[in-house]
Every structure is written in structure tokens, then in C-alpha cells.
Amino acid sequence: MTERGPSNYNQFPENEVTLRDVILKTRDYFRYLGRKWIWVVFGIIVGGMIGGIVIFNQKINYIADLTFVVNEDQGKSGGGISSALASFGLSSGSGGGFNYQKIIQLSKSQKILFDVLLDSVSYKDQKDLLAHHIIRAFNLEEEWNEGESIHFDSNIAAKLPLQQKAMLKRLYGMISSGSDPVFSLTFDETSQILSMQTTTPENALSILLAEKIYEILSNFYILQSISKSQETVDQLTARRDSLERILKRRQINLAVENDRSLGTIYQKDNVEKRDLSMDVQIIRTMYFEVVKNLETARFGLDNIRPVFTIIDTPMLPLRTDRKSLLISIILGSVIGVFLISIILFLSKTYNDLMYEDT
Questions:
Q1: Spatial contact of 328 and 55, defined as CB atoms under 8 Å apart
Q2: 87 class by beta-carbon count within 10 Å (0-12 exposed, 13-18 middle, 19+ buried)
Q3: Phi, psi (rounded to 5 degrees) for 259
Q4: pLDDT tens, position by position, 323-351
Q5: Which helix (H) or strand (E) holds 183?
Q6: Element at 196 (helix H, strand E)
Q7: Residues 287, 289: Cα–Cα separation, whole Å
Q8: CA atoms of 251 and 276, how far apart (whole Å)
Q9: Which stretches in the chain have pLDDT values below 50?
Q10: pTM of whole model > 0.85?
Q11: The Cα angle at residue 321 between residues 317 and 325, in degrees rounded to 5
């Protein structure tokens, strides 16, 4: 009967890594880094210098902030703006209350931003389309590798040639969308304030762009909101003016007949006079009714007209998107230490593997 040797079930395999091995290896590695401290310092210095150089070479953009509120009767159904949004394929929802999201969506529409870009403005003592000023400020001709200068021949988007329309849409995309859009509009539900931001490489251009977007957006929104009521006022005004002219002519004719009828003996001679007098009374009644309806329509128009009120306008000096120099240097130093540590770790591991049997 053979004797069995001691059981090996509780013994670790030779190649199994224990926690003790990990701790010892880690301690050895940090000791190795301590001996190579000059390389660690080198990584800190080089990384910090690279971080500082990146900040100094960063292209600075200036951010213009404009905040405003819109006062509108919450009981109105917003028919005007609903029709405006419908023309852009946007839905105003079934609710009757005022929704600031309508303004935000409208501000990013091609209708508004095309009108902004193709509006003629004075900038740096040069009157030109705002789109051309933006193209020069961003140096887009070089960035987009265009062989020819980017120029728009008309301030109406529908009249532009096909190639210029494509370029306008590309410029529109850069401004309204993408990872870093030039223009943004947000709404704070707590304060009920709309905040607009425009970012360009030039101080004055950022301010000009923000003010122009606000101007065209507010004018268009107000116009669409009151369009139906304004049409009613215009129709009643035209009707009032027409009745006023007719009434004046009838009154003059009646005065002439009164002069002719002086000393008249027979009643049949007063028939035309009585007819004219009746016409004057009827037209005067109609005129007063139209005037009353006109004043009512004007009162209603004033009540539904939205009021845009600017709270804060962009003022120089504008804030920039430049990162903090200190943070960049610290981040660069950390990255430098990390990379040097990786290189030293790989070097030590290689040496350990190559010379462990010698």
C-alpha cells in the first residue's frame, strides 16, 4: 500500500499573483519613480509648458449676453404666432397659454436667421451684409477652402442663386447648430427670462449680431401675433374713411337743397330734400357704428400686442471663452507626469523581464 503525499489542495499555484505581490510590486515601482525623480520633474515642466502654450495660441472668442422678457396675455390663444410657426412646420400645441419655447424655436428658424444674415449693417465703417462681416471675422473662405470669395448678391434668400443658397445654409448651420454654435437662446422657467448668447472672434461683432437677432425676432413675433387684429383695424379704418367721404358729400348736397327750398310753396318740391336728409341720417348712424367698432378693435389690438423688454444688454468688455491659464498648466503637468510614469513603468517592466534570470 503506497503512502499518499501531503495534499496540495490548499497550496497556491506558482504563477498565481497574490495581493502581497501586488503591494510589493507597487512599492517597488514608486521607489523606482523616486530614483528617477528628475524625469518626473521633466514631465511636470514640459507638460505645464505645453499647457501654457496651448492657452496662448488659443483663438479667443467674445461672448455677448442679452437677456429679455416677453409680456403677453396668458389668456390669449396665440393665433398669430401659431400661424407663423405653422409656416415653418412647427406646432404650437393644443394649450392656449403662452409658451416661451415658441420664441426659441422661431429664433433658430431659417426665416429669422436668413433675414439677420442678409440684413445690411454698418460695421468698422463699412456698410455690408452681416453675413459678409461674419465670413471675414471667422476667416471662413480659408477655413472652408473656397477658391472664390463668398459673396451674396441679394438680401432676399429666395432670390439667391443655388450655389449661394447652399453657402447661406452652411453659414446658417454654423450659427444655429453644431457642437459649438455661434448663437443660442435659452429660457429660465424660474425667472421667466430669455437669455441670448452670441460668440464671435470680435467684440463689436458679437454685440451687433445679438442686437440684430433680437430686433428681427421681436419685430417678426409681434407682427405675426397681431396680424389678424391689425387686419381688422385696417378694414374698419378704410370703411370709416369711405363713410366719412360719403357723409360729407351728402351733407353738402343737403345744404344745397335747403338753400334751393327757401320760399318753396309746394310740398312736392321738398321730396328730394327729405330723401337727402334721410340718407344723411342713415350714413351718420353707420359711420358712428363703424367708429365704435374701430375703437373696440384698436383696444383689443393694444391688449394682445406682446411687449419685448430688454433686461441686460451686452457691454464691453465682453467675457471670452479662453480657458484658465493656471488650470491649463496644472492639467498639462498632470498629463506630463502620467505619460512619463507610463514610460518609466514600461521601461522597468521590460528590464525586469529581460534580466530576471541573469
A1: yes
A2: exposed
A3: -65, -40
A4: 767 777 788 888 888 888 888 788 777 77
A5: strand 183-188
A6: strand 193-200
A7: 5
A8: 8
A9: 1-5, 7-10, 12, 74-97, 265
A10: no
A11: 100
Q: Which residue has the cell 441670448?
A: 196
Strand partners, 197: 65, 184
The answer to whether 183 and 176 have CB atoms below 8 angstroms apart is yes
CB 210 within 8 A of CB 66: yes
* Beta strand spans in 41-178 (E): 62-71, 120-123, 126-129
User: Exposure pattern of 120-132 as b/e (b: 16+ CB <10 Å)?
Assistant: ebebeeeebbbbb
Tens digit of each residue's pLDDT (9 = 90 or more) over 82-120 = 444 444 444 444 333 357 888 899 999 999 999 999 999
End-to-end, the C-alpha distance of the chain in Å comes to 45
SS3 127: strand
Q: Which residues are CB-neighbours of 280 under 8 A, at least 6 positions away?
A: 247, 250, 251, 254
Q: How far apart are CA 249 and CA 218, in angstroms?
A: 44
As given in the structure block, the three cell numbers for residue 24 are: 510589493
Q: What is the DSSP letter of 6?
A: P
Phi, psi of 35 (to 5 degrees): -70, -25
Question: CA–CA separation, 268 vs 262, rounded Å?
Answer: 14
The whole-angstrom separation of Cα 335 and Cα 47 is: 6
C-alpha cell at 300: 383689443
For the chain, the residue count is 358
Cell of 157: 434668400
DSSP-assigned letters across all residues of 34-74: HHTHHHHHHHHHHHHHHHHHHHHTSPP-EEEEEEEEEE--T
Q: Which residues contact 281 (CB under 8 A, 6 or more apart)?
A: none
3-state secondary structure 263-275: CCCCHHHHHHHHH
